[in-house]
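Page header: ASSEMBLY MODEL / two components / 451 residues total.
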Amino acid sequence: MTSIIYELTGVHVRFGSRVAMDIDSLIIRAGCLHVLIGPNGSGKSTLLSVLAFLVRPDRGCLTFCGSPVDWSGKQLTLLRKQVTLLHQDSYLFSSTVMTNVAFGLRMRGIDQKEARRHVEHFLALVGMAGFEERDATALSGGEARRVALARALACRPKVLLLDEPLAHVDQESAEIIEKLIATQCRAGTTIVMASHDEQIEERLPTRLIRLNAGRIDSVT
Amino acid sequence: MGFIAESLRKAVLLIVSGSSDVVSAVSTSLVVSGSSIVLASLVGIPAGIGIGTGEFPLKRVLLTLLNTLMAMPTVVVGLLVYAVISRQGVLGSWNLLFTPTGMILGLTLLALPIVANYSLSAVKGADPRIVPTALTLGATRFQSLLQLTREIRFGILAAIIAGFGRVISEVGAAMMLGGNIRGYTRTMTTAIALQTEQGEFAYGLALGIILMGVALAVNALLTYVQEKRRA
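Prediction written out in full:
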C-alpha cells in the first residue's frame, strides 16, 4: 500500500463568480502517476495550481504528507521546494538555458559549480546537451518545453506536476518527455499530469482522474 | 539670424574656455539630478512593483493618486516642499531651504511618481507567468519579485530615464527650493532662466547646449546598456 501524499477534502476554488473547482474528496498517492483527464475548463489546471500551492482554495482542507497546509508564507516556501509545476505554456526567463535550469538550484542554495554539473546532467537527460549557453528565448517550442522540464527535474521534486506536457510538441520531444515521465515515476517521484490523451494508460501505469466542470467524475 | 549665430559662437567659446560659472552650474545640476533620481528609484521602483503585483483595498486610490502626481505642476511640488522646509515648516530647523539637499528633496518628489508609474506599467506589461514560475521553482515571494524585476529591466531603465529627464530639465521647484544661488544651488536650467532674463543670451545658449549634451549622453549610455544586455 503506497502512502498518501495529498489529501483534499471539500476543496472549493472560485474565480469571481465562476466555480473553478469543487472537490469533495481526493487522494494522491506517493510514487504514482496520476493523469487528470477532462475537457477544457474542467478544472485540471486549477487543481494543479492548488497542488503546487499557487492557488489557495476558498474553503476546504488540503494536507501534504499528512500535515494540513495552513497557507502561511513560511510554510508555502518550504512546501514549494518539494513540488514543481511545469506549466502548459512554460515560461523561460530571458537569459541563457544554463541560468534557467540552474534557477531552482540557486533557490535551494546549491553552489554554482555543483549547479552546473546538475544542469549538464538534466539537459543531457532531455536531449539538450550543449545548449547551456544558448539564449533560452530563442528556442523552438519543443526545445523550450524540454528545457523547462529539465529545469523542473533539476529541483529533484518529491512531486512533479505537469500541465499537458505533450501538447503542441514535435514527435521527438513528445517521446523524450514521455520516456522521462516513466523514468521519474519508476524512481519514486509522484507525478500528477493533466492530459487530453486517454490512451496514456495503455502506455504507462496510471491512475486516471476524470474531471468535469470542476468536479471529479471518477478515479480509476 | 546673425544674432543667433553670434550667440552660438559665444556659447561655444564659453564651453571651450571652461568658465567656472558654467562648470559649477553643470556639476550642481548633475549632483542634484543624479541624487534625486537615485533616491526616487530606490523608493519608486519597489513601490511600482509592489502596487503592480499586490492586491490590497486601497489599490485604486493609490493608482489615481500616482497618476495625479504625474501631472502635478512642478511649482506646486516646489511650493509644498517649501512649506515643509521653510523656517516655519515642519523641517524648518533642518535649514534645508536654499540648499542642494532641499532641491534634492523636491526633485525626488517630482521624479518619484514618474519612476513608480513607469515601473508599474512595466509590471503590467510583464508576462504573468514570471512570478508563478519562480515560485514553483522554490523562490520566496521576495525572490520571485526580484526575478520579475530582472525580466522587466528594460522597462525599469525606461522609468529611470524618464525620471532623470524630468529632474534635469526642471526649473520651477529648483528655483524655489534652491534660490538660484551662484556657485551653490544654481543649476543649468535656473541659470538659463536667469541669464536669458538678464539679456545674456549667449550664456543661456551655452548652458542649453550643454544641457542637451548631458541629456543625450545619459540617454546614449542607458541605450547602450540596454542594447548590450539584449545582445
